[in-house]
Amino acid sequence: MTDILSTVFLASLLSGGVISAVPLIYAGLGEAISERSGVLNLGLEGMMVAGAYAGFVATLNSGSIWFGLFVGGIAGLVVSLFMVGLCVYLNADQIVVGIALTLGATGVTALLHSAQYSKSYPRLPKAGVLSIPLLSKIPVVGVGLFSQHASTYLVLVLVAGAMWFFRSTRIGLNIKAAGDQPHALEAAGGNPRRTRTVAVMTAGFLAGVGGAHIALIGAGLFVPGVTNGAGDIGIVLAMLARGKLWWIVAGAGLIGVSLSLTTALQLIGLNIPIDAVQMLPFLLIIVVLFIFGRDSYLPAALCLPYDREAR
Amino acid sequence: MDDDELKPAVELVDITKAFPGVVANDAISFSLRRGEVHILLGENGAGKSTLISILSGMLTPDAGQIIIDGEPAEIRSPRDALDAGIGTVYQHSLLVPTLTVLDNMMLGTNRSFRLDRVHAQKRMHELTQLLDVEIDPDARVGDLALGQRQQAEIIRALWSSERVLVLDEPTSMLTPQGVQSLGRVMRRLAERGLSVVFITHKLNEAIDFGDRITVLRRGRKVGELEPLQMVGKGVDDLKDEIIALMFGASSAGADANPSGNIEKAEWLDQQPVCFRLVDVEIQGDGPKPILDGITLELRRGEVLGIAGIDGNGQKELAEVIAGQRPLLHGQVYLDDKEIQRLSVAKRQDLGIRYVTDDRHGEGTVGQLSIAINSVIKRIGQRPFWRRTRIRHAVINEFARTMIAEQDVRTPNEKVPIATLSGGNMQKIVVGRELAKGPRVVVYNKPTYGLDVKTMQVVLNQIVEQARRGTTAILISTELDELISASDRIAVMYEGRITGILPSRPGIEAQLGELMTGASA
After folding, report:
1. What is the pLDDT of residues A282-292, one digit of tens each?
2. ipTM value of the model?
3. Which CATH number fits domain B3-247: 2.20.130.10, 3.40.50.300, 3.30.300.20, 3.40.50.970?
4. Could you tell me if B161 lies within 8 Å of chain A, comparing CB atoms?
5. If one looks up domain A2-117+149-295 in CATH, what number appears?
6. pLDDT, tens digit, for every residue of B381-395?
7. Which chain B residues are within 8 Å of A308, Cβ to Cβ?
8. What does the alpha-carbon distance between residue B208 and residue B290 come to, in Å, rounded to a whole number?
9. pTM
10. Which of B78, B95, B114 sits opposite A189 (nearest CB)?
11. Which residues lie closer than 8 Å to B161 by C-beta, 6 or more apart?
12. Three-state DSSP class for A127?
């Protein structure tokens, strides 16, 4: 059993964990912003899978990972526009629309993929990494943490940026008010609907980038359902973070590591049924929800459409 | 007082706003001078909140004009109102409880991308000085005491400019001391040249704090008392005059039939007492009981009016009788049977019925058909259900009869009840409660929000039903309808019965005194 503590095992666990965690952070951050504004975005998974497909096509044709991530973000944003139109402006039920978007986007991308690539199953070249000098030379943890694609570091910058944004900018303040007391925002001269639109579109873009990250940097290919529930995990992370964005990073790290456990265990040849190991992250979420779910903070006006004359 | 001060700072001209089934504001004009505290007085539902929602941009009027400093102004959103210097403190708090006081102040007022905390702190300091209060700017609003939270709301309303302050029923949650300090704050602001609009349904506050009083009733402006008028009179005369305006006492009882009243009174004396409340008490959240030692005796066929300013325990009394609220102590008797422990459904069976004042909320289920709503309190009972199966044919037939009897205007009995106007909906609600042997019916503001004609229909029905031997308890804030429909009128004040008078025209002043807590 000493194998479990071997360098190879730990390094691959860490490295794989980071690769799995990054899309969860993108998704969780987007969801946190959307929820803070009062929109429960269950379409997150759909936005991710749209981003994954669009990013894959873009990178396949251009050869640029960054371009693919950007196009993925745009695809996620386009899907989020449905959410904006239906839920923010037409006051449709957020849960129904969110689920419909996820199902729809999953189906459409699967269809497009089978029409275009079902014969060839193209793969992308392995994404380049950005090795941070000195830090990446640390034994065991160095490579896993500090020799990853630059998108990995970008997402941490974005989390820090979002925290600053919520604390120090007008739009951040408006988003918080839109989720807790939209009538107060309106009475103060703000516009709850426009504020929510900004938040949902931001969430869509981030989820799209996260989805593209999975296809371009994690898997190196697109297959239907490649996001594999990452969007749903993102929703859980955002709820558990209770508005404290660093918790998303911590939670994503934990779940990312458990996701990469499968590969790492195979690498050292330990014989545990693969299904049991793959179950682990979801089991973990259930356990975490049991422990912390009760305290999870949700904005007061979450899931409630805003209608000025209704009271 | 020089001319400049008398010129209105803000004028509302012929403001009209209708909601489905109710005209909330009917051509109301309202002017506001610099340096005055102007009271807007009226019962709940008189249209006060609608009027100030229009002034503050939360609602747009159907017709009418807003004039600011002599220029017509468009106020289409709260931002327009704030830009025009009109700040409002709403009845329901509009601060975000999870944010700090300072963040709340910056919400909507900080127009640059970055939040300017230094500037906000400075402004906060200025305004706390102006109001002479102390508030920690970094405290979360949800953690503030109610009085402080209200001060924060006032600061918020005055943040961008100090010109007009509108306070919508600001005293409802304050202690007496809190009310006094709010009064001082208002006076201080008026002395500095601001105009303050103070909305209330409490008479004493209006007289204590006001320079001028405008009275609304059923969506119309029924009177305005100028400062000169107010100075010249004694407080009691002023109260009488205001009560007459608020409750429309002048027209009261014009159609009452005195000889009929006497006949009815003689007939009633021969009827047995069939419903009694003995020393009923219920406790609220506060230190005072909501109902305090209520004792009433009603004869068969009697209509007992319950008068009182809204919120003095009338609704709770109705709920106690219907069985929706447990008693702290006391007894309720139907004939000689104690019923205070029986459930709502059991009391229904015995003939105790409750026509709620909340006909959209607890009275009906809007999306269901008229037919289902007409039997909704008898779900599972024969003949409408047999075993567990619903019998639509029977229910529809029942509803059609009710529609014909009550003269309800509707295409058929299968449309959702929410499509009916308020009056027609009320006819169904009343018809439902009067079906199947009513003994004692509590009507809680049965004419609220109805047009004059329907109102009369509903009142006539109550009187007619009583002649057939059904005892009625009629809760209302409209003295004229109480006097015209009731045999006796009990007045409630702060959970107690302050007096019971035989109903006849001309007792409005006496009732008014009882309503404000003077003893009989």
Report:
1. 788 788 777 77
2. 0.79
3. 3.40.50.300
4. no
5. 1.10.3470
6. 888 888 888 888 899
7. 58
8. 26
9. 0.67
10. B78
11. B82, B85, B87
12. coil
